[in-house]
């Protein structure tokens, strides 16, 4: 999928602020904007950064061509329109890499640019990071709950058709094995997978009634015996018997999409073994979330198909990150009004870990200071350069890099941080800003 | 925004089902697929159909070109690839119009086509309708709660960047007055609006400290005194005083984005009146949802800015609609396995209302039967033709038509149906299928 122009994927006020600023010295003052989350969603122990790669792609398409200028000319003065015509982001961006864990206050992305140049990116930056991080954060918990068993992401139908593509990417970053979404396969190289729907079996209904065996035979003829047959359209026990009768014991897998999945998995496993098909796997799906996945740990399930809960962030569909101006020409700035605390000044962050690798704290420190040291702990700086002079730096981590990075990062969590139960962030955030 | 190719915005299994079907007579059997929701989200009284217009636009771009065929060739046989190369949906679609209320079981969309032709659309249809209807359904409750006061949708930063555009459209359909999203203004003609961010005021911090008045003066110079000034960056009372000092009593509005919005609105209203600015309006924003909006009914608020809760469906980010094969060559079909009840056979629906206009029940009946009559009630059929021979019919209702339709439809609900409290659907669904 080629990326379209992204300049209007923004809030009108970003542009009117630019218009108001351009008449003043503020427009060109050197500013630092920071992206962070004030808190994690409802009892979550960690968040997962995702979307940075997509953001850098879309940033290159954030240009005001004639069509975009015609729209903004409705409410902007000609000088501002001329400025936008020439707009290319020319500043610097640092940030957490994709697949990095984050905690409340982590400075996930830092944009350094003139005021007008930087304020303009707020909406696009937040849309992408808030969406993708919400999905990756939920997916990582599901992957943890599933242990060594693979998850197939199949939620495209439960979210906006383009959000579905980004969701598949974020889920893959988080360790999900494959997606049903073909655009994600094309655009991001995510492995794709699929089974069959009840409609397929129902379609073989003729004047004489249903014919599940004909449906199974047709699927095997087209896709081979390694395929996954959906066995719960009519009676599951009969469905399994039909599947093995038609496919033989080499059948790849059966899928169960409804009912008490634990009970059914056990029954079906026993039946498959009795039928001499011990290698035929069991795929379960149907309203699974991280808790349902965990509850199936002791059951003979081989693969999970997860849809709705994954693409909707399992109760937290947005990461709640904000984009805040924190420094103007070297002077720290911060909103002072109640309830929305923020800390002025450009910041960076590092994570301290024991020699075992287990992390202990997130340290947020002044960007101008060196990486802090902590006695007895290893301290790893978290931000990497992403954009210089408006251009993405060379050799940025790939999606696969991020996927490996997250897998390692999850191992570094204190054990209670991987639990599904609600609680505090897995490690505290310590501000070293004096 | 021009629409890109949509053929890969789909699940792989739709295509493998086509491949398996194409070798069998089933591929060309005349089928009816229906879209419906088994239930409304968690205690909601009604749903709002949205997305149909977008679906018809995207349907025209559901074509397999060389790029798309290269992707699906990885797992499909050459005959199927050839069939996809020629694929144009050539069937019929009927459905509820956008802005129509729906209830559990309402046949929101009906697709009639050969099996392969129809099954291929499942993912795209559901992605669009599930997303857009979830947003419109949440937005309609907020609009009801706001009464005559306008709502500005400003949630783009809290959802996927393209979902944001669809959300703005769905919110407008539901009666929201304007959006901050400029792509929605361009693509769908939704009125756009905006205020300013704290960053703007903070940007005017100089070596001598903050200068809120300079920020306000700059905004007024660029946008005129009709603009909305954000007054809660530092101290709200001082902010309001600064705003009127700089703008005079002709100032359009002030915005409050944090704190106890009810208390603050009262204080600010009093202050504005005392300053001789009785016509300066008050815009409130900050984590508003339908309940918070309702709680501000008695407060002197003029406009609500709503973000996160709107674009995430206020707890129900997907409408949970399904796309089910219900009839094959005139034979009703239905899944029989537990927990996911469905009713076979092509269906249509009508809504019965008293002479006063108040609706009484949703009647789902066999599509082949005439519209049912109910003694003493007026019965209105709900499906309209949307596509014939693969082409959208002429003079389909516009987005504005849908917006008016919904406004009328909400008035037709029994009074308890407009309440925000959890409960049963506002009217029961009666199946007349014998």
TrEMBL record, chains A, B:
GO terms for biological process: NAD+ biosynthetic process via the salvage pathway. SUPFAM superfamilies: Nicotinate/Quinolinate PRTase C-terminal domain-like, Nicotinate/Quinolinate PRTase N-terminal domain-like. Pathway: Cofactor biosynthesis; NAD(+) biosynthesis; nicotinate D-ribonucleotide from nicotinate: step 1/1. It is an enzyme of class 6 (ligase). One of its GO terms (molecular function) is nicotinate phosphoribosyltransferase activity. It holds the Pfam family NAPRTase_N. It comes from the Bacteria. Catalyzes the first step in the biosynthesis of NAD from nicotinic acid, the ATP-dependent synthesis of beta-nicotinate D-ribonucleotide from nicotinate and 5-phospho-D-ribose 1-phosphate. NCBIfam families: NAPRTase_put, PRK09243.1-5, PRK12484.1. This is Nicotinate phosphoribosyltransferase. The gene is pncB.
């Amino acid at each position: 999928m080629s990326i379209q122009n992204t300049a209007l994927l923004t809030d009108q006020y970003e542009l009117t602020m630019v218009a108001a600023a351009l008449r003043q010295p503020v427009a060109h003052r050197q500013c630092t904007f920071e992206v962070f989350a004030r808190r994690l969603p409802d009892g979550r122990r960690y968040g997962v950064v995702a979307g940075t790669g997509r953001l850098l792609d879309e940033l290159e398409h954030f240009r005001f061509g004639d069509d975009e200028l015609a729209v903004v000319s409705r409410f902007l003065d000609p000088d501002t329109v001329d400025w936008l015509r020439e707009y290319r982001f020319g500043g610097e961006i640092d940030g957490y890499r994709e697949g990095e864990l984050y905690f409340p206050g982590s400075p996930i992305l830092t944009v350094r640019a003139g005021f007008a140049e930087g304020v303009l990116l707020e909406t696009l930056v937040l849309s992408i990071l808030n969406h993708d991080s919400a999905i990756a954060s939920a997916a990582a918990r599901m992957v943890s709950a599933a242990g060594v068993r693979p998850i197939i992401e199949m939620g495209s139908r439960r979210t906006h058709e383009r959000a579905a593509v980004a969701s598949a990417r974020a889920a893959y970053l988080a360790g999900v094995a494959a997606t049903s979404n073909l655009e994600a396969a094309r655009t991001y190289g995510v492995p794709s997978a699929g089974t069959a729907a009840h409609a397929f079996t129902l379609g073989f209904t003729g004047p004489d009634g249903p014919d599940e065996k004909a449906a199974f035979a047709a699927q095997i003829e087209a896709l081979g015996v390694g395929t996954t047959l959906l066995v719960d359209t009519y009676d599951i026990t009969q469905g399994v018997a039909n599947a093995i009768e038609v496919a033989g014991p080499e059948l790849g897998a059966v899928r169960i999409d409804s009912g008490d999945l634990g009970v059914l998995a056990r029954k079906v496993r026993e039946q498959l073994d009795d039928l001499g098909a011990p290698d035929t796997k069991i795929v379960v799906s149907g309203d699974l979330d991280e808790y349902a996945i965990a509850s199936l740990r002791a059951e003979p399930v081989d693969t999970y198909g997860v849809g709705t809960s994954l693409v909707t962030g399992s109760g937290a569909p947005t990461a709640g990150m904000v984009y805040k101006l924190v420094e103007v020409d070297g002077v720290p700035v911060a909103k002072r009004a109640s309830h929305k605390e923020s800390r002025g000044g450009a910041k960076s962050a590092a994570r301290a870990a024991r020699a075992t690798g287990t992390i202990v704290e997130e340290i947020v420190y002044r960007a101008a200071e060196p990486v802090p040291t902590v006695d007895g702990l290893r301290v790893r700086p978290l931000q990497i350069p992403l954009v210089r002079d408006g251009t993405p730096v060379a050799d940025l981590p790939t999606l696969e890099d991020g996927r490996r990075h997250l897998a390692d990062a999850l191992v570094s969590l204190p054990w209670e941080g991987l639990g599904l139960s609600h609680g505090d962030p897995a490690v505290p955030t310590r501000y070293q800003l004096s």
